[in-house]
């Protein structure tokens, strides 16, 4: 009798351990294990002006801020500078908003880069699947461009996508409708120079960015996944700080549903 009881106890213990291990593996293996839905979100401090796309404070938040955004990420290795850009941001103690193209997330290298960036606390937005001009597409093609990239970003990072930047800044009524349907916020920019031939050099880009007539509180600064941008970024960040600007954390920017709740 004692032997049977002892064996039964061992079986029960093994079942418990197996069940606990299985539950643990299930939680760990979920692609959204780090999904923001599992963490308590703080009240937003800023919102994006729907007309100018500049960053505006909510309540008593510091208005003297700028937002750093990076398009066309992550370009295929070895040409991608997104990891270096993310490292410079981390070294400076600031966060950025990275707008991904879904076509760069079709291989494991691209997904790994994007996940590493998201894991550092940066925010990942949608820059369409193929970087097409949306004014050249049908409404259904536009839907596919946005939906495919949302899925690719969420699968790679575990982040739900809240922000959308249309390639070339081109938008239309179909895009507006999809933003409402998907609960996303369209976002163009205040200024950006790294795509212009004259500023495809770190020193020239730094000077032009810091001396731009459009650099003012709330500026939404456009940059890209390029070598000269990565090289210029530390000096740009320091120069912005020297002028009294703080780099706004995109995690503190209101999402569409939060803007509605705030009446914005």
| Low-pLDDT residue spans | 1-38
Number of strands: 9
Q: Considering DSSP H and I runs of 4 or more, what fraction of the residues is helical?
A: 40-55%
Q: Which value, in Å, is the CA radius of gyration?
A: 22 Å
Question: How many DSSP H or I helices?
Answer: 8
Order of helices and strands: HEEEHEHEHEHEHEHEH
Shape call:
globular
The average pLDDT score comes to 88
CA-to-CA gap between the ends?
A: 73 Å
Structural class: alpha/beta
Largest sheet: 5 strands, parallel
Measured by DSSP, the beta-strand proportion falls in 5-15%
Key attributes of the depicted protein:
264 residues, alpha/beta, 5-stranded parallel sheet, two-stranded antiparallel ribbon, globular
Give a short overview.
The chain is α/β, with parallel strands linked by helices and 264 residues long. The protein has helices spanning 2-29, 82-92, 108-119, 139-157, 173-182, 202-210, 227-242, 256-262; strands spanning 46-48, 55-57, 65-73, 97-100, 123-126, 163-164, 185-186, 220-224, 246-247.
Describe the structure.
It is a single chain. The protein has 264 residues and is of the alpha/beta class. It has helices at residues 2-29, 82-92, 108-119, 139-157, 173-182, 202-210, 227-242, 256-262; strands at 46-48, 55-57, 65-73, 97-100, 123-126, 163-164, 185-186, 220-224, 246-247. Strands 3, 4, 5, 8 and 9 form a five-stranded parallel β-sheet that branches. β3 (65-73), α2 and β4 (97-100) form a beta-alpha-beta unit. α2 (82-92) packs parallel to α7 (227-242), α3 (108-119) packs across α4 and α6 runs parallel beside α7 (227-242). It is globular, with a radius of gyration of 22 Å.
